Amino acid sequence: MSVVGHAPPPFFKRGPAPLVRLAFFVSLSLILLVADLRFHTLEWARLAVATVAWPLQRITWMPIDAAGDAGGYLTRQSTLLKENEELRRRQLGTANLLLRQQHLETENMRLRALLDMRARQPVEGRIAEILYAARDPFSRRVIIDKGIQHGISAGQAVVDDIGVIGQVARVFPLTSEVLLLTDKDQAIPVEVQRNGLRAVLAGAGAGMMELRFLAANAEIQVGDILVTSGLDGVYLPGLPVAKVARIDRDSAYSFARITCAPLAGVERHGLALVLGARTALPPQPDDLPATADKPAAGKRVKKKAR
Questions:
Q1: CATH code at 193?
Q2: If we measure between CA atoms, which residue out of 287, 266, 125 comes closest to residue 205?
Q3: pTM of the entire predicted model
Q4: Which of 7, 83, 193, 217 is 20 to 30 A from 121 via CA?
Q5: Where is this region: Disordered (predicted)?
């Protein structure tokens, strides 16, 4: 009896050769790349894969985001604690100064009342915007948007939130020209806040000023604050003006060369406050003519001679 049937399957089933597979998949890849590049045929497949993979990406990034948020929270918390501590330290440091200032102001008012002195009247001010600098490159002048129609007059002092900026030099109907402290034609009487030493501060250009006509051995040092003395009748006394930056003492010269830096934003243009005119000071007493004393003296000499 013959057995009729199929031949037994081979022990290893072999497919196409590896080189054929490689050539097939490389060709398929090139076809897909060209088709996607020219006709965008795989855009839908890319969107589908991105949509499916987006939740997985978010889940993967959640621990990293949580760690970053926790680190940022701790950093901000530490920074806020340091800033609060620094502000509290500054507040405690300035509390004594504020209390002393209030006490000194109260005591000053009492002394004025006892001495029957008239308290200084506060002057009015008008806020002005600095439009632009003057065209002359050798002068330090700025133009503000207030003029005659706004009640501005020549000679009024101009300040900012820190100290003195300059003085109104020329007035136009709608604008005014302000001569800055650093201009070489500007001079202002000042005094050293520490010891009351009076001097004249003049502009030196390049954003600096010079304290002139002080003896080489004058009691002044680097870091001293200069304030207006009020002797010129223009600036109110006590307004911050400048800070001593450098002192050159040379025994060969009678005067010291003292360079100062302005405290206010003289070279930083923005908003300014034009102070009103001060209360008129009493006129200076007239000097007696020199010829009036000579006859009187002669008469007295004749009486004595008789």
A1: 2.40.10.340
A2: 266
A3: 0.53
A4: 193
A5: 282-306
